[in-house]
């Protein structure tokens, strides 16, 4: 990144952020202010990132953890990863799962936001509080509760299905089959993610000037047209942020999948990328191979966020 | 690295909706429609709140009613037995140390994140210096690096420092996780405070640090609340890093403790588990309800102005 040039203050209009040309304590001040954050980030984020790259080109197993030197293996770990069917299965699974979750979250979140716009004060408050409760639930606690709701023996879902359909659902296991495992996982993740999306979009919609909507209505635009042609373009930036963030969060989902597997999923058929790295590395001790997967994972994440980063950089004039 | 920012910054701006346009005509039809929407909203609210309700309900039910052929939608014979079991009958890992660890690490991260982010955001907004743009770009990009990818190297680093199972190590890892986002957020808020205010204070004889402290800092309250909320949520809820760093029973944080209820060999004590979940969730819910009202704009104002 090229650095910003020190600007000599032009007479008259002094640029707000100023810098002193002379080597004075004032010139050191930004670095003093930045130093603690920089130190934490370099040590706790920078170093592990470098270490991750280093591990990914070495053979590093349990033995190396005990002091046996790690041989350099070049790109072997990457070749092994990229030719491993399991890696592609996990990646494909993660992406499909992410797409389903993001589409569901954004769609329902939009509908909830539009509903919030139409409600009277009382019902808006009621719905907001309910959304807030779902949002505030810690992911782990939420996952355990949902695990209990879908419990094989005494879960409320099986109880209800039994009384509604008349057939006995008791003992039906929702987590054994990968498809219904992911359906449950998606339900929980979407349930937890909608409040943030709905509140954010609602806040955005309320900023659309009433006159613009009124003008559109006078021109004969129905609710649908007004939504697509006025409201959506107005909150376009919010949509971009929400979609990118949702993609990132849902692709790297760890806690929910990990916990649901603990309740009763088949690990080999339900792991997503984050959980897969944990299995390969922490659980099985293939640290080198797992680090190669982690590097690939990171590259995928950066690719997804590249557009967002570029737009942000442009807007912020970095 | 970003540690799964589950709930980012609560954004609330319940300004009167602009949909008033539709409301002027056809009052009768409108009333019917609004009743309809009210019903939809009530159903939706019930759906969103149900899991939370079910957790609380189960936590007060005696075990024989939880595990039985009948569904108990209401705690008929409420009992505190499950809370007793969760808090004091845990042979695997005791509740009190876990609570202590969680409180310590959360407090540490909350305070450190706010102070460090305040300093850093001043540096990148109030000064032009070599490397400024590079730093801002770095924190933007670092946020996209998944913590899941770095768990192995972070684990090995903490291990090599001989700091596994320590609150300080976990706190520092969390701090690094939240800093990019908190600096980014606060930076937007500092940008909103006019430099002229600081300059006026400096003309009046304040030193630069004093001008920051006396003028800018008090105006950053909403930004600092946003930062604090995020840091609190991360530190209190985070599970994965705590799982690999805090493995000893006495060093576990609450999320890791909560997981010990489930063992492969034994059937789950759902009543105690739900009581434990309530204990973990209540502080977050209370915190949310308290800070909720103070947040205005937040992310939205940042996103829209672009």
TrEMBL record, chain A:
The chain crosses the membrane at residues 28-50, 95-117, 129-149, 179-203, 234-251, 290-309. It is found in: Cell membrane. Keywords: Cell membrane, Membrane, Transmembrane, Transmembrane helix, Transport. It is a multi-pass membrane protein. Pfam families: BPD_transp_1 (PF00528). CDD domains: TM_PBP2 (cd06261). Residues 91-308 form the ABC transmembrane type-1 domain. Its main location: membrane. Belongs to the binding-protein-dependent transport system permease family. This is Sugar ABC transporter permease. It comes from Cellulomonas wangsupingiae.
């Amino acid at each position: 990144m090229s650095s910003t040039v020190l600007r000599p203050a032009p007479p008259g209009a002094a640029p707000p952020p100023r810098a002193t040309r002379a080597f004075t304590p004032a010139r050191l001040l930004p670095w003093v202010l930045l130093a603690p954050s920089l130190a934490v980030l370099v040590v706790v984020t920078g170093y592990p990132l470098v270490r991750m790259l280093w591990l990914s080109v070495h053979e590093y197993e349990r033995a190396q953890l005990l002091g046996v030197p790690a041989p350099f293996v070049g790109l072997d770990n990457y070749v092994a990863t990229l030719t491993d069917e399991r890696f592609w299965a996990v990646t494909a699974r993660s992406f499909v799962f992410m797409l389903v979750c993001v589409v569901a979250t954004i769609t329902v979140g939009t509908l909830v936001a539009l509903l919030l716009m139409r409600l009277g004060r009382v019902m808006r408050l009621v719905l907001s509080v309910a959304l807030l409760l779902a949002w505030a639930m810690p992911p782990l606690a939420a996952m355990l509760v949902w695990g209990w709701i879908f419990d094989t023996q005494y879960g409320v879902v099986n109880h209800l299905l039994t009384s509604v359909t008349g057939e006995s659902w008791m003992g039906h296991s929702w987590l054994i089959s990968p498809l219904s495992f992911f359906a449950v996982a998606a339900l929980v993740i979407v349930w937890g993610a909608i409040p943030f999306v709905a509140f954010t979009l609602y806040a955005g919609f309320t900023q659309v000037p009433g006159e613009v909507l009124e003008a559109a209505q006078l021109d004969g635009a129905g609710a649908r047209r007004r939504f697509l042609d006025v409201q959506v373009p107005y909150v376009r930036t919010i949509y971009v942020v929400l979609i990118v963030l949702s993609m990132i969060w849902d692709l790297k989902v760890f806690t929910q999948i990990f916990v649901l597997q603990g309740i009763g999923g088949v690990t080999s058929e339900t792991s997503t990328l984050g959980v897969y790295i944990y299995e390969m590395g922490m659980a099985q001790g293939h640290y080198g191979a797992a680090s190669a997967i982690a590097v690939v994972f990171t590259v995928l994440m950066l690719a997804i966020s590249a557009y967002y980063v570029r737009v942000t950089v442009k807007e912020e004039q970095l | 690295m970003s540690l799964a920012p589950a709930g980012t910054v609560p954004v609330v701006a319940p300004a009167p909706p602009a949909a008033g346009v539709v409301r002027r005509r056809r009052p009768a039809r409108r009333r019917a429609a609004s009743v309809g929407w009210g019903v939809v909203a009530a159903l939706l609210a019930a759906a969103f709140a149900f899991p939370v309700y079910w957790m609380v309900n189960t936590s007060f039910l005696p075990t024989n009613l939880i595990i039985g052929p009948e569904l108990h939608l209401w705690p008929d014979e409420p009992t505190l037995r499950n809370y007793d079991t969760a808090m004091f009958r845990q042979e695997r890992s005791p509740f009190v140390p876990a609570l202590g660890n969680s409180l310590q690490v959360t407090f540490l991260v909350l305070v450190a994140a706010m102070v460090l982010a305040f300093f850093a955001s001043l540096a990148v907004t109030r000064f032009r210096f070599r490397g400024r743009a590079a730093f801002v770009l770095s924190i933007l990009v670092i946020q996209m690096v998944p913590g899941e990818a770095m768990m192995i190297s972070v684990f090995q680093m903490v291990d090599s420092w001989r700091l596994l199972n320590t609150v300080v190590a976990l706190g520092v890892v969390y701090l690094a996780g939240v800093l990019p986002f908190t600096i980014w957020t606060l930076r937007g808020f500092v940008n909103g405070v006019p430099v002229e205010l600081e300059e006026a204070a400096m003309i009046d004889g304040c030193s630069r640090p004093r001008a920051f402290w006396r003028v800018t800092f008090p105006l950053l309250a909403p930004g600092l609340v946003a930062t604090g909320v995020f840091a609190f949520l991360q530190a209190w809820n985070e599970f994965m890093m705590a799982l690999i760093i805090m493995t000893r029973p006495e060093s576990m944080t609450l999320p890791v403790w909560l997981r010990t209820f489930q063992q492969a060999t034994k059937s789950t004590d759902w009543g105690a588990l739900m009581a434990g979940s309530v204990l973990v969730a209540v502080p977050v819910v209370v915190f949310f309800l308290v800070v909720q009202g103070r947040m205005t704009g937040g992310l939205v104002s940042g996103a829209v102005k672009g």
